[in-house]
């Protein structure tokens, strides 16, 4: 039985990095991609059967280069994990156009471009699996998350749609929906809130939401929980589309299914002190 190969985007930190190490520990060939300076990552480079290489999901030439190196070294790609992403939170009116475009370039367009460039190799093999990292934020929305939730709702929709056409070539599509995770993702969000102090009408609202999100993040899970859920999705042989990761995600996604729109919105307002 040949060793399977997984290509993972966004391995500098968090879920991507933890997943790369977890799959390597399970005996897989791992292609761990980072945006820059792959040679400087001594930890990942020290792992057996691991290729650390450059891939920026917003630059198609780096996508194609990483895929070519994968095929050259390991011969095939059994699983693609589209993990690279980040969250842009804040007041839409205060958000620069560049920030709006970048959120969707990374989380949505980047996922599509990497997938598009991997598919010819999977189609040739008539086999493969695309796993996209979504979020509980792809099923529910929090205040001030217009960009992030919009991007993750897009990942949910495009993954579901893609699953129909790829079934014809023997390729599967799966979604991972983590809750709050203990990574520097939360720190990045906190440091990057788009607010404009001159727009005073939003001040009280933004303050309450930021405090509410900090409280929500205190219920986070560890990245290894998500890595194990990804491994389950990659190896269970099921045609299951969605996998929830984290007790908070289970709870809130279940609540969203059970509540109508008005009751759900009222619940979020209550939890955020709005």
Automatic annotation (TrEMBL):
Gene3D superfamilies (UniProt xref): NAD(P)-binding Rossmann-like Domain (3.40.50.720)
Entry keyword set: Oxidoreductase
Family according to the record: Belongs to the short-chain dehydrogenases/reductases (SDR) family.
Matching PANTHER family: SHORT CHAIN DEHYDROGENASE (PTHR43976), SHORT-CHAIN DEHYDROGENASE_REDUCTASE FAMILY PROTEIN (PTHR43976:SF16)
GO molecular function: oxidoreductase activity
A Pfam family it matches: adh_short
Record protein name field: SDR family oxidoreductase
InterPro entries the UniProt entry points to: NAD(P)-bd_dom_sf (IPR036291), SDR_fam (IPR002347), SDR_oxidoreductase (IPR051911)
